[in-house]
From TrEMBL:
PaaD zinc beta ribbon domain segment(s): 98-144
Organism in which the protein naturally occurs: Solicola gregarius
UniProt cross-references to Pfam families, sorted A to Z: FeS_assembly_P (PF01883), Zn_ribbon_PaaD (PF23451)
Recorded name of the encoding gene: paaJ
Domain of life: Bacteria
The protein's name: Phenylacetate-CoA oxygenase subunit PaaJ
PANTHER family listed in its UniProt record: 1,2-PHENYLACETYL-COA EPOXIDASE, SUBUNIT D-RELATED, FE-S PROTEIN MATURATION AUXILIARY FACTOR YITW
Domain MIP18 family-like positions: 3-49
InterPro entries according to UniProt: Fe-S_Maturation_MIP18, FSCA_dom_sf, MIP18-like, PaaD-like, Zn_ribbon_PaaD
């Protein structure tokens, strides 16, 4: 439903001589999906007729949810996943640290209500949390801001 470009994982596509080089950045350095993403890119490009493909991983700069495109946010929302807040990671000075999790005001991607609660800080993947809407009763996932 979302592409690696929608999610901001795709960093660069270029040629190094005859080799097509695709550079990706995982959503976090321990992301277990990066191997599958790399293999899917390689298979899709080879299937499209590219014989010499090199899929590289770049960890710097680190991926941020600010790289999720407007289209990616729209697609996540349409499929019942609360997208990350845009601009949530932009800072220009010291980053305040707290000993408790920040309270997030999320709207339900199904009914639009802001009467929601977090049920688990970790969802199907470490980069998502689980929530439930108190208005419609539906559960939903939220992509955490990084």
């Amino acid at each position: 439903m979302v592409t690696i470009d929608d999610l901001g994982i795709l960093r660069d596509v270029s040629y190094d001589g005859a080799t097509l080089v695709v550079t990706i950045t995982p959503t976090y350095s321990g992301c277990p999906a990066i191997g599958a993403i790399r293999a899917d890119i390689d298979a899709a490009l080879r299937g499209a007729g590219f014989d010499d493909v090199d899929v590289r991983t770049a960890l710097h700069p680190a991926w941020t949810t600010d790289w999720v495109s407007a289209e990616g946010r729209r697609k996540l929302h349409e499929h019942g996943i609360s997208p990350p807040t845009h601009g949530a990671t932009a800072t220009t000075g010291p980053v305040p640290l707290t000993l408790s999790l920040p309270t997030r005001l999320l709207t339900c991607p199904r009914c639009g209500s802001s009467d929601t609660r977090e049920t688990s800080h970790f969802g199907s993947t470490a980069c998502k949390s689980l929530h439930r809407c108190r208005s419609c009763g539906e559960p939903f996932e939220h992509v955490k801001e990084l």
